[in-house]
Amino acid sequence: MAPRGPRALPLTPNLGAVLPGVTLADEMDDEVFRAIYQAFLRYQVLLFPPQDLPPARQVSFARRFGEVQIHVMNQYHADGYPELYRLSNLDQDGRPSGHHPDKGTLAWHTDGSWQRVTGQATIIYGEVMPESGGETHFCDMYGAYERLDASWKKRIEDLRAVHNLDFSRTRRHGEDPLTDEQRRAKPPVDHPVVRTHPETGRKCLYLGDHAEYIVGMPYDEGRALIEELNALAVHPDLTYEHRWKTGELLVWDNRCVMHRATPFDVARQGRVIRRCTVLGEVPA
Ligand SMILES: [Fe+2]
Questions:
Q1: pLDDT by residue (tens digit) across 178-233?
Q2: Angle between the 30-43 and 55-65 helix axes, to the nearest 10 degrees?
């Protein structure tokens, strides 16, 4: 008997696939979820076409992937669900406020790399989307590693980078800094620069905007190395650029992709997303 479950249709030759025909608000049997999870490991980024998805159902879908993170930045908790994090530029009357809710998302990064146990899947539902801009771009970090030449691979094989939310959020992007309590709750952590994906066994580069410096290397030298590798990681032919439609859901694997959002006109257009991050493991 042919396996049941949705068929993944690739979005690019390398990463990303759309999964039509899945009603995420319904109960999902194990076989369907297994097919989704296999596609998640194979394609790194999954797109589910526009549909209604109540907050509670988004949380229960996320729980199929693993333990859902309760984000330290509690000002973003949405709809009474601490598992959901809402990023919105609309004011209380539903009008664009002119304020970008999180400028840190504009730089290439991987969710939760500033924690000891880092992010596995991020699951975002697009509640309101602008007519232009506000895209989400993904780059393949398996490919980023594989395309490094042998001398780069040798140079970074045993390096560890310190990831620090306070660095990326407060010092680099400037707005809405962490509170002292949030800072104490999330001290800097170090992770390997080259990690092995725990499920696929493939090596990938693991850096992004939360990476501040390299353990055992002078600070400025480490900063320069991180900036250089973050730039080297992005190849146009190993990138998927998603232009959102309202009601879509995206799922991606933070262990092997970086992502960023593109700017939009925050004074004239609305953009509201609801996000869940599933916790993964300590990178190795
Ligand atoms: Fe993110």
A1: 788 888 888 999 999 999 999 999 999 999 999 999 999 999 999 999 999 999 99
A2: 70
CA 136 / ligand 1 centre spacing (Å): 9
From ligand 1's centre to the CA of 10, what distance in Å? 22
Cα–Cα distance for residue pair 253/214, rounded to 1 Å: 24
How many A from CA of 124 to the centre of ligand 1?
10
Do the Cβ atoms of 244 and 133 come closer than 8 Å?
no
What residues are paired with 259 via a beta bridge?
109, 138
Q: What is the largest CA-CA distance in the chain?
A: 59
What is the C-alpha to C-alpha distance for residues 130 and 57, in angstroms, rounded to an integer? Answer: 24
Q: What is the DSSP string of 12-41?
A: SSSS-EE-TT--TTS---HHHHHHHHHHHH
